[in-house]
Amino acid sequence: MIPEIEKATSEEIKAFQEVKLKELIGYVAEKSPYYRRVFRNHKISTSDINSLEDLAKIPVTTKEQLQKYNDDFFCVPKSKIIDFVTTSGTLGEPVTVGLTDKDLDRLAYNEAISFACSGIKEDDILQLTTTIDRRFMAGLAYFLGVRKLGAGIIRVGAGIPELQWDSILKFKPTYLIVVPSFLLKLIQYAEAHDIDINASGVKGAICIGEALRNQDFSLNVLAKKIKAKWDIELYSTYASTEMSTAFPECSEQIGGHQHPELIIVEILDENDQPVMAGSEGELTFTTIGIEAMPLIRFKTGDIVAAHTSVCECGRNTARLGPVVGRKKQMVKYKGTTLYPPAMDNLLNDFSEVESYVIEIYHNDIGTDEILIKIATLSESDCLLSDIKDHFRSKLRVSPKIVLCDAKEINLLRMSKLGRKPVDVIDRR
Prior knowledge:
With 428 residues, this protein is of the alpha/beta class. It contains 12 helices and 20 strands.
């Protein structure tokens, strides 16, 4: 199930997207109060935008603007909204996103072709280990996508390893949709209850929310820990509520494939200029085919690199590498630039670390400080020393690390909406 446009040449994909872009510009110029205002203030005419390069004539859209003018981004009356969701609010106040019936169809199509990209077929059964409620788009998207693909789904919801294993053993799912660190909890439960995980019938996991790979696409520490115990395939996927689109890994597992009929991608530098091919920059996107809340040149805050080398899976689309970090969570610490994912990877090297949270704040002189609170299975001064030495060896700096009770850390990690745990608390 590879859409024909994903097998087209780069020139054909570009021409296709330019037709869709013209349609989008005409649509928002008529329907969007926010973009009508932008076009008027910057003296932009719909006739000015004819190519992907012409997108640069339009100012970028930021998360702050989406938060401040949320209602002005709606292109339809609220009576046409079928489903209301909100963003997670990881870096600010949650934003309301509405979906029309057409948008829900698009969302289902996106997930169906994304699952197919990762090798899932009609005869597969997927177990959903994330919430489908609490205004969470992803859980709904997974359900709609599996249904459109024609596969089966088990809606177990978040947490509770006992219920997850009861469902695995009872219904024999072939894939799990899961936050990868939760797979370690499933492994621990299985080992404690004499469950043979490699005889469970699960052959793969669609992993969300956490990185599985290093920038060269090799498995990171978390993925290696999972694979050492559970012989399953791990597929990364990148998505956000605002884009209503996913970037799934294929069988080659060398980045998440763009769906060019659903989204236009730019990778921009600090001055909102395109970076050189393969270089890191901020992921910026323009949605295609969204009715209620289309976005133009929306800056995600995520730092990534795009890859355009030939992929053996047959798709000829750009691929996103693992997220390097969030732009707002970049830390300048003692002369070294750090992103939280790099610290995550190092902490995952230590099996004794049960849970942790990274706090970033400004000190008295206004420079960045890092405090890592960890809960361990066994308290040890040697462990703290080993972790600090590991940081110095790999990152050339060692932040302050303190031992805390696991309950305290779990309370810190829970977001206000309670949809997903937060590993980074930025107090700057």
